[in-house]
Amino acid sequence: MRPQKPLCRVPRLPRPRLLEALGFTVLFGLGLYLLTRGAVHGGYHWQWYRIPRFFGTFQESGFAPGPILTGLSVTLQITVVSLAAAMAVGLLTALLRLSGSFSGRTVARVYLEVIRNTPLLVQLFFIYFVLAPILDLERFVSAVLALSLFEGAYASEIFRAAILSIHKGQWEAASSLGLNRSQSYRHIILPQGVRKMLPPLTGQAVSLIKDSALVSTIAVYDLTMQAQAIIAETFLAFEIWFTVAAVYLTLTLSLSAAVFLMEKRFQRFVS
Predict the structure, then answer these.
(1) In sequence order, what are the residues at sequence separation of 6 or more whose Cβ sits closer than 8 angstroms to the Cβ of residue 59?
(2) CATH superfamily to which 74-270 belongs
(3) Largest interatomic CA distance in the chain
(4) Whole-angstrom distance between the N-terminal and C-terminal Cα of the chain?
């Protein structure tokens, strides 16, 4: 018998992640090129060397945070508190819509229609200028309340869709085990819906981070408000806004990466 010829190896195609990284690099380089060309033709004098001191300075007593880091800490506080409250509001609203109570479903439906069909800025002004004087709320609390109610309305639809996606057989299995409705949610339904909730909830959290910039309209000195104060003092409009955009981008990408790792670990745990 003649020896068989070795089979030709099929060339491997580039990995999707490599292509994504290459595409991102090309787009970033193109954007940087267009920005540089626009600055040259526009005659704008860039002063990036003045930016680091707005993050902080080293003094004899130690590191002193600048206005950007100070505003970032306020933004993070608002985001964390609002995100936790929005998840609670969203879950409660979803459970009310799925409940057998007519009044509960009506209240949840009215809340959703009002919040989703009015701008966040209008809701923020209404809470700060109307409700805050009556309830004696501070600016921080007003900002958190507005963001929580707004994002909670959209989170409730995510929770409801995840709950409805669970097969009815799971409810029957929980009932056969003698679990009541609340126990079924806690032990059977919600744990199975977490995998389906994580990706859209991550997008909602990213939206919350970006929407938090609106709290600067009620004089909450978050990252955006601090940027406006710096620009009014230094006239470094482009440098400051590009820096702030980079900070927001870093926050959202870090959040997406953390949730991605958590989702991977959760899938490994389930499997």
Answers:
(1) none
(2) MetI-like (1.10.3720.10)
(3) 96
(4) 48
